[in-house]
């Protein structure tokens, strides 16, 4: 699937060389060190202004960890295509088993793990999309971890655009390149738009019960989607489906409640001038890590926790999850 032979003939990179080649455009990724000698090939390029990476890696496990995320603070979406063979991707409480040509949407601000069979060298293509521009164009925030199979026409078109070497060899007019970027956004919208709510009265009641459980326990740092599913009496997969059809995930809903509660406490702190440590507020809301809390707070409300002065935060940022 690589029309350019220069990628397959590129020099091999060791562990440090691989991480250095990825770092500038993609941030930190961590191949798991194994007993055999690590080897990889990386080609970075641009298609219609989007960063693209082609890579081969002989490790059975490649991760973007919480530490990697804190280390680079990069925020973008990216679609990953398995070029050959099979692998599994773990992201946002989902496990997707993918084969050649499948397209998976991922979020750089959430951990991800790529797992490949020991006998294969994993071959992937990644296409990076700026978060703000994509969300603005689509009108919704897509959820990382969703897989679209290769049989889908939009998936085939997207792969063809990302793989076509013509965009590298013949510089396009700026206007034409802008239109092609919009075409890529539209393809992503066709692939990853959330389905409409099921409308089932039973599902609505069940979802309300799930939300009630989370509302009563979101300050508990030990709460997890698996525990919520068990307390509700449903499978983890069914719990995920209840949130997926509403354009969210259970983990994101828990985090949203924690951030809203933290915003209320910080507003009260500013109003009463108590000087309560912000880290104590974060921990009281269920966050284990202050840096993770501060990053999520800024993303949701547009300002750092310490920058909040007397007066309410923007109410538009506090959107309830639709039932």
Count of DSSP H/I helices: 13
Query: Which CATH architecture of the largest domain is right?
Result: Sandwich
The biggest sheet, with number of strands, parallel, antiparallel or mixed sense and barrel status, is: 6 strands, antiparallel
Give the low-pLDDT segments: 165-170, 314-320
**Portion of residues within helices:** 40-55%
Q: Helix and strand succession?
A: HHEEEEHEEEEEEHEHHHHHHHHH
Number of domains: 2
Strand order of the largest sheet: 2-3-10-5-8-11
Please report the total strand number as a whole number.
11
Could you tell me the mean pLDDT? 83
Top-tier CATH class of the largest domain:
Mainly Beta
Q: Radius of gyration in whole Å, from Cα?
A: 21 Å
The span between the termini is 43 Å
**Strand portion, in percent?**
15-25%
Structural class: alpha+beta
Name the CATH superfamily assignment of the largest domain: Jelly Rolls
